[in-house]
Structure formats: structure tokens, C-alpha cells
Design a protein that fits this description.
The complex is a heterodimer of chains A (270) and B (282). Helices cover 35% and strands 25% of the residues of chain A. With 270 residues, chain A is α/β, with parallel strands linked by helices. Chain A has a single domain (4-116, 185-265), classed as Rossmann fold, CATH 3.40.50. Chain B is mostly helical. In chain B, helix 3 runs parallel beside helix 6 (137-161). Classes of the chains: A alpha/beta (270), B mainly alpha (282).
Chain lengths: 270, 282
């Protein structure tokens, strides 16, 4: 974390960063959330409100629970056996455990750390979510518009029916974003989406996040503090399964309230 | 060079040579069998072999057309039962199995895999032949299906499990139900491996003799449908080889050659499918 000093002193490039969190309507809320892998408690009493149409970043060292937290938001955490959730996650004030899980995941999309295109054509990858959700309109149009939203259309329009594996790593990750966007999610969860990408591909995805803000609420887990500073309106800092501090990105990076936060962002540990 | 160094070099050379000789020996056995079969059976594999019925003892000529058709009948029945059941069981083990039950099923499947095939034959005889009061292709097909099920289940499970978890999560995260994610993402990603396992399984049962001896028995004539004693290549080889007639021995060699070539063909096909690569990027 050798560059974090300079990060902390730079104002965020994001124009909406710094607006108070409290005024935004809470799209997604965690209320006293605990999470267990077997007997191991991975999340301790997390309460956090994600405002609508904003980018929320979750930062923290490896194993701090930020990805685990993200995965409880669309209940994909349930795919791992022997896990247990206590507390609530509310989507538009409705407890997600009462929402049909396939409906929930259509409304709350997810992009993973490692790009995971299906072993299918580019077209079929984007169309997948539409097909499983019984989409009845023109697949062709929907696929084109999703690829456009993910800023990938121009690069793939002549090879839509080629295997998705023929794309570069950055393109594959944008394909996964296009695939998630195709079903028009209200919330988009991104779990370290740029960790395997070079700076150019990373910049493309960050640009993309800005353009998506109007259409959906974004929660991004990232290892990269500069990335959080660049893209996020508000930032939460996780440590050892606890949410240490949650505030606007500007406050977190300039005047954090907690000593642990300051230690982390200035690179004293982590 | 010191004595010790020289000794080490000699020992290394001796051990290396020993492993090499054993490796050549292992492969040579296949070529020895193949060569022997071609030498003895090659002359007897003619058009008649594939089109004519066996001749009574003492007469020369004839073929094993009924055994070829019978073998296909029995294997078809075994495949129609064994592959779907084995496949579904494999999917269950890989995707749905809990801890205890899946462990038990997996363990039982491995045990069943290790049961001597003659015991499977006795079992099929007891539950099918005895109640029906006659030998039949149905009994033979069932016996072979019992062998095919655990093979298919375990190989399907193995290839499904090797599909990365991230693909399942990707499909689930788009709102696919678990079954949909398996059917449209996991199985397509693993289909080459699954198909290979199935072909190898069918090739394995194609050569089984013991389970057929007292289930489908054998027949010197055509069998109609699945309800009569039915000739099959492996049993035909057995009966012809132990019979005291020179011409039957010749036919047995020919049948051995045809059976071996069929099994080799299936193996090569399976390797070809698999060598085109697992269709998932790691």
C-alpha cells in the first residue's frame, strides 16, 4: 500500500462523491447482519444502508468479510453448505429472505472477481439471463443494448456467435457486466471486478460504472483503495468481520473518524 | 570420478532401464494379443461371419450374425437403462448430494464397481431369469446395466465436479434456478468428459462374458425380441473356444478379433472426444 498516502490527499474524481449519505433513499439495507461459516463467525453485526443510484465501495484487507457481506445481499452465499445468516437484508424495505430467490437475483445482479463467461457464444452469454427469466421481446435488440451499456458492442458486434473465451480478460469481464445488465437489475454487486485486469481494462470498467449509476445502484468490493477513491460516493471499511466505519468517500479518505481506518488507508497495516 | 559417484550412475541406469523394460512389456501385451488375434482370427473374418448363422458341429463355414445382433440388442438395453440412471445419479452426487447420503452412495457405487461380474450375473439370474422361467436378452441387458450404472455415475460426477464453482454462481446470480443452471451451464461445460465416460463404460460392458452366461445364455439361431435366449459375441467366444471342433475354434478367434476391434474403436472415439479439450477455461 505504498501509494495510499497520496490517495488520501487527493480529492475524489467523482463529482457526486461527498454528498451526505443520509439524504439518499436507502435502496439496500443490512440490519444487524451476522454470518457464520459453520461455527466461524465471519460477519459481526453489520448495519449499513446503500443509497439508490450511488456507488458504494467496500474496502478492507483480505479475509475481512467484505466479499462475504456482498454475497449475502443476493443470497448467493446460500450456495455454500453449512452457512447461516442472522439479521436482515432489506431491498426496498422488504426482507430478502422473503423474496423468491430467483426474483431477488434478477433484481440484484452480480459480477464476480474472476470473469466467468459460460462456455457459450458471446450472444448466448448475454441472452442467458433473459432466457432463464422468460424474456419475450427481441433477444437481438436486448443483447445489443446490453453490450452497448457495457461498452463492448463495438468490439464484439462482428463475432457475436464466437465463443466468449476468445475475448481478452478485460473484454470477458465487460461481457459478464453486460450479461448482468441484460436483466435490468436494480442493484449491481461487483466483487473485486478489476483484480485480474490491467490498468486500461480497469479504467474502462470504472468509466462504465459512472455511466451505470443513473440506471442502478452499485456496490463494489475492492482491494484497491485508489479505485474506491476514484469511483465511490461512499465507502465502508471492513476489518475482521466488522464494519469499522462507513461514510462518504471523502470523509473516509480525508478525515476518517476511526484510528483503524486511518491506519489502513495510510498503509500502516493491511 | 569417485567410486561412489560411479555406483550412483550405474544404479540410476539400471533402475531407469528396469522401468523402461516394464513399460514396454505393459504395452507389448496389447500388441501381442492384437497380433495373435489377427493372425488366428483374421483369416476367418469374412462376409459370412457377419451374415450367416453358426453351423452345427462338424460342418464348416457359417458365421455369427445372430451373436453380433444379439450383442447389440443386449448392450442397447443395458445402455437405455444404465446411462440415464447413472447420469442422473452422477448429477445428484456432484450437485445435490449432502454429506452423509452422498458419501454412502459414492461408497456403494465404488463397491458395486468392484463386485465380480459373475456375481452380478447370479443376481440377475435370481431376480429375472428364475421368475421368468427362461433365459432372455432382457436378463442379460439388466445384468450389464447393473455394471454400467456405477461406472457412469462416478465418471459423470467426476467431470461435473471439475466444472468451476464460479460458473454455477454466474448462472444462479442471473436468476436461474439450480436445476436450470445445472442443465444449461454445468452439463454443457462437462459434456465431453461425460460422453467419454459413457463410451468407455459401454465399451467395458461390451466385453463382459460372465454376467451373460446364465442370463441371456446363448442361441445358435436368431432370437426374436428380448424374451428369448440370445446369442452374444463374448458368450459365443466362450462356447466355441471350449468346444472340441477345429472349425469352431477358428470362429472363436474371429469373434475375439471383431469384439476387440469394436472395443478399441470405442476407446479411440472416447479419447478423440476428450482430447478436443474440456470445454471450460480454467
Amino acid at each position: 500500500m505504498k501509494t495510499s498516502m497520496s490517495t488520501a490527499n487527493q480529492p475524489s474524481a467523482n463529482p457526486t462523491a461527498g454528498k451526505p449519505v443520509a439524504r439518499q433513499q436507502g435502496k439496500l439495507k443490512a440490519v444487524n447482519l451476522n454470518f457464520y461459516y459453520g461455527a466461524y463467525k465471519a460477519l459481526h453485526d453489520i448495519s449499513l444502508e446503500v443509497p439508490a443510484n450511488r456507488i458504494t465501495a467496500l474496502i478492507g484487507p483480505s479475509g475481512c468479510g467484505k466479499s462475504t457481506f456482498l454475497r449475502t445481499l443476493n443470497r448467493i452465499s446460500e450456495t455454500i453448505r453449512n452457512t447461516r445468516v442472522e439479521g436482515q437484508v432489506l431491498l426496498d424495505d422488504e426482507d430478502v429472505s422473503n423474496v423468491d430467490v430467483t426474483t431477488l437475483r434478477r433484481r440484484v445482479g452480480m459480477v464476480f472477481q474472476k470473469s466467468n463467461p459460460f462456455p457459450k457464444s458471446i450472444f448466448d452469454n448475454v441472452a442467458y439471463g433473459l432466457r432463464v427469466n422468460g424474456f419475450s421481446g427481441s433477444l437481438q435488440e436486448a443483447v445489443e443494448s446490453s453490450l452497448n451499456r457495457a461498452a463492448l458492442w463495438g468490439e464484439v458486434k462482428d463475432k457475436l456467435h464466437k465463443s466468449a473465451y476468445a475475448l481478452s480478460g478485460g473484454q470477458q469481464q465487460r461481457l459478464c457486466i453486460a450479461r448482468a445488465l441484460a436483466v435490468d437489475p436494480e442493484v449491481l454487486l461487483l466483487d473485486e471486478p478489476c483484480s485480474a485486469l490491467d490498468p486500461i481494462a480497469t479504467a474502462k470498467i470504472e468509466d462504465l460504472l459512472f455511466t451505470l449509476k443513473d440506471q442502478c445502484t452499485i456496490v463494489i468490493v475492492t482491494h484497491n483503495m485508489q479505485q474506491a477513491a476514484r469511483v465511490a460516493d461512499q465507502t465502508g471499511f471492513f476489518l475482521l468481520g466488522k464494519l469499522i466505519e462507513y461514510n462518504t468517500t471523502e470523509v473516509i479518505f480525508k478525515t476518517p473518524a476511526k484510528q483503524e481506518t486511518e491506519d489502513y488507508i495510510t498503509g500502516r497495516f493491511g | 570420478m569417485t567410486l561412489r559417484n560411479r555406483w550412483r550412475k550405474v544404479l540410476s541406469f539400471v533402475m531407469l532401464s528396469l522401468t523402461g523394460v516394464c513399460a514396454v512389456l505393459a504395452v507389448a501385451i496389447l500388441f501381442l494379443i492384437l497380433g495373435y488375434l489377427i493372425y488366428n482370427g483374421g483369416r476367418s473374418v469374412d462376409w459370412d461371419f457377419f451374415t450367416k448363422l453358426p453351423k452345427p458341429p462338424g460342418e464348416t463355414g457359417g458365421g455369427m450374425a445372430n451373436a453380433i445382433v444379439g450383442s447389440f440388442q443386449i448392450i442397447l438395453l443395458a445402455t437405455v437403462i444404465g446411462l440415464p440412471v447413472g447420469f442422473m445419479a452422477g448429477v445428484y452426487l456432484s450437485e445435490f448430494g449432502g454429506k452423509t447420503f452422498a458419501f454412502l452412495v459414492r461408497y456403494m457405487a465404488d463397491l458395486l464397481n468392484g463386485v465380480p461380474s459373475i456375481v452380478i450375473g447370479i443376481f440377475a439370474w435370481t431376480v429375472v431369469v428364475v421368475p421368468m422361467r427362461h433365459f432372455s436378452a432382457t436378463a442379460g441387458g439388466l445384468a450389464l446395466a447393473l455394471i454400467l450404472i456405477p461406472i457412469t455415475a462416478r465418471s459423470t460426477e467426476q467431470f461435473m465436479s471439475s466444472v468451476p464453482q464460479t460458473l454455477r454462481e454466474g448462472a444462479l446470480a442471473l436468476g436461474a434456478s439450480k436445476w436450470r443452471a445445472i442443465a444449461t451451464v454445468v452439463v454443457p461445460a462437462a459434456y465431453r468428459g461425460i460422453a467419454t465416460g459413457m463410451i468407455l463404460g459401454v465399451a467395458r460392458i461390451a466385453g463382459e462374458t460372465a454376467p451373460l452366461l446364465f442370463t441371456s445364455l446363448g442361441n445358435q439361431y436368431w432370437s426374436l425380441g428380448f424374451n428369448q435366449p440370445t446369442a452374444s459375441l463374448p458368450v459365443m467366444i466362450f462356447t466355441h473356444a471350449v468346444a472340441p471342433y477345429e472349425d469352431w475354434h477358428r470362429q472363436a478367434w474371429a469373434a475375439g478379433l471383431v469384439l476387440l476391434l469394436l472395443v478399441l474403436l470405442a476407446n479411440v472415439a472416447a479419447r478423440l472426444i476428450l482430447s478436443r479439450g474440456i470445454s471450460v477455461q480454467k
